[in-house]
Design the sequence.
């Protein structure tokens, strides 16, 4: 596990982008699962404004780690957020975008998206492999849409499950640990002081944290895990 700490989100975005470019350098095609929520917005804006030409976007295929069970034009949709901040500005080809159908029945879509992953990704040891999985972390320690009160979903033998937001009750389709921890590279992008408590628990007491928080269960078999933190999210770490 590598921990990288940045004074500002633009510096974090720049470092993450360089990390991604390095992974993509010798690959004809990069399959990436995007995170949702608000953290990626400034990253996607940076990509669409400053990386139009130094990233070969035609070689990147976009999937998601999770999606809210809402229509794709709903303001809660991770797909809509990504379309607004990235796809529309870079005219990403439609056949490189594999959205989770939030408008469909959640259980049915969890099955459907698992099939999409099996059809679209290389399979290693019977499990589809992402080149990169990009994750966020909620202030409760959730990641993707696996929440602490549904921690068992992380270890499902399914590739995709239906999570339920503990406060709103909103259903979400989410990748599970089975596919997330099978990825070649995994990055957790975590900013904001409201994340600092869980960041220090997970990084400095991982065994205990893994019993409570899905984000602590992000332990890719490849060993290629990087935490990209801003200074506020990292403020409680004893070793900076
Ligand atoms: C989602 C995300 C979720 C997110 C965390 C952090 O659909 O909301 O995939 O896992 O990454 O909740 O969200 P923020 O970036 O908004 O803090």
Sequence:
């Amino acid at each position: 596990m590598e921990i990288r700490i940045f004074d500002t989100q633009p510096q974090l975005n720049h470092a993450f982008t360089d990390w991604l470019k390095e992974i993509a350098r010798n690959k004809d095609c990069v399959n990436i699962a995007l995170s949702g929520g608000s953290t990626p917005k400034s990253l996607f804006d940076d990509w669409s404004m400053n990386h139009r030409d130094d990233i070969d976007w035609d070689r990147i295929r976009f999937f998601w780690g999770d999606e809210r069970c809402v229509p794709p034009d709903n303001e809660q949709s991770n797909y809509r957020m990504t379309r607004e901040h990235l796809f529309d500005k870079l005219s990403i080809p439609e056949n490189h975008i594999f959205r989770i159908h939030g408008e469909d029945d959640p259980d049915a879509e969890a099955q459907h998206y698992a099939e999409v992953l099996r059809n679209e990704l290389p399979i290693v040891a019977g499990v589809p492999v992402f080149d990169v999985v990009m994750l966020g972390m909620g202030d409760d320690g959730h990641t993707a849409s696996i929440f602490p009160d549904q921690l068992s979903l992380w270890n499902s033998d399914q590739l995709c499950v239906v999570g339920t937001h503990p406060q709103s009750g909103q259903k979400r389709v989410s990748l599970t640990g089975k596919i997330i921890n099978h990825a070649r590279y995994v990055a957790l992008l975590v900013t904001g002081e409201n994340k600092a408590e869980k960041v220090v628990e997970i990084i400095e007491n991982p065994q205990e944290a893994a019993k409570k928080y899905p984000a602590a269960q992000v332990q890719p078999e490849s060993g290629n895990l990087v935490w990209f933190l801003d200074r506020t999210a990292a403020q409680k770490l004893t070793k900076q």
Remarks:
- The chain has one domain: 2-230.
- Residues 2-230 form a domain with the Rossmann fold fold (CATH 3.40.50.1360).
- The helical segments are 9-24, 39-50, 78-90, 106-120, 177-180, 196-204, 206-210.
